[in-house]
Amino acid sequence: KGIATGGGAIVALFPLAGLAAIALWIVAIKITKLPVISSLIAAGILPIWVGFDHNYMWELIVVILLYVFV
User: Fold this and answer.
1) Count of other CB atoms within 10 angstroms of residue 68
2) C-alpha torsion 6→52→30→3, nearest 10
3) In terms of Cα–Cα distance, which of 29, 30, 10 is closest to 20?
4) pLDDT tens digits for 10-48?
């Protein structure tokens, strides 16, 4: 439920990044056959995509550091 809710919010806030994450999730589900791993991959790449898309380098660094620690 959390991934679907977060995904909907991301698509509303960042449409291009959200659709890219959905496409990545579909590719990952075809390869791994595990929705949990696919969701982690899509959720992990999404902050990086948004950071590079919006040129907020300090936010990108903070999000990557939080992702590494989690």
Assistant:
1) 7
2) -10
3) 10
4) 788 778 888 888 899 999 999 999 999 998 888 888 877
